[in-house]
Amino acid sequence: MAFSWEALRRRCRRLARPAWLGGTNRRKPLSPIWGFERGTPVDRYYIERFVADHRSDIRGRVLEVHDQRYTMQFGAGVERGDVLDVDPTNPRATVVADLSAADQVPANTFDCFVLTQTLQFIPDVPAALSHVHRILRPGGVLLATVPAVSRLAPHYGPARDYWRFTPAGCRELFHPVFGADNLTVHAYGNVRTACAFLLGLAWEELPRRVLEHHDEYFPVIVGLRGIKRAQNNAPGTP
């Protein structure tokens, strides 16, 4: 592994401010930005694990939100990568649209949509999912992650960070769109990693065996893989 001054600085910060999960008297987290300055946020460990497990789906024409982080990192056989953003000033955006009102995006366009940690900022999630399904090609795959536990995002704040999700809630939202047979839902995390994430620890501060233990009662994120059925076999049809 190549030497990194930034990685060394993060390690020094962790040593200077060691984490103690028993410190329940804390009124503020160790990090106000999910642990970025200490290392890698805990939820990123699970997000990347989920996307990596489904890397073979990231192929053909791929759409991702804000940038092409995971398309570039995990994509296999990507013919074209597009970036969706509601912000027209994003220089990386090739598709400018509000996902809950994306009528201008053509239907049946994308083979894969990588939609990580986005739906919590959209007031009308069912409308967004309807457009997600519409713009996928038949046989196209949605790879989505949503937070079950997280601080409110500083950039959006209490006024625009709307939702946290459970596996059961995700099934209620996604089943009518993709159909139960075309959706897999997986919860990642446990009580210790949830506490660590809220306190602002980095995943590098946790043992791998702790990170790899998943307790359905204490998810940190939920990962969803949905496949768009053929047009003549849409959800609700025989």
- Using only C-alpha atoms, the radius of gyration works out to 19 Å
The top level CATH class name of the domain at 43-189 and 219-229: Alpha Beta
What order do the strands of the largest sheet run in, or round the barrel if closed? Answer: 3-2-1-4-5-7-6
Could you state the order of secondary-structure elements as H and E? HHEHEEEHEHHEHHE
Task: Give the helix level as a range of percent.
Answer: 25-40%
Report the strand count: 7
* Helix segment tally: 8
What does this structure look like?
- The protein contains eight helices and seven strands; from the N terminus they run H-H-E-H-E-E-E-H-E-H-H-E-H-H-E.
- It has 238 residues and is of the alpha/beta class.
- The protein has a domain at 43-189 and 219-229: Vaccinia Virus protein VP39 (Rossmann fold), CATH 3.40.50.
- It has a seven-stranded mixed β-sheet with strand order 3-2-1-4-5-7-6, with helices on both faces.
- Helix 4 packs across helix 6.
Q: Quick gist of this model?
A:
The chain is an alpha/beta fold and 238 residues long. The chain has helices at residues 5-16, 42-53, 69-74, 125-135, 157-160, 167-178, 191-199, 208-211, and strands at residues 60-65, 78-85, 95-96, 110-116, 136-147, 183-188, 221-227. The protein has a domain at 43-189 and 219-229: Vaccinia Virus protein VP39 (Rossmann fold, 3-Layer(aba) Sandwich).
List the helices and strands and how they pair.
Layout lengths: L4 H12 L25 H12 L6 E6 L3 H6 L3 E8 L9 E2 L13 E7 L8 H11 E12 L9 H4 L6 H12 L4 E6 L2 H9 L8 H4 L9 E7 L11
Parallel strand pairs: 1-2, 1-4, 2-3, 4-5
Antiparallel strand pairs: 5-7, 6-7
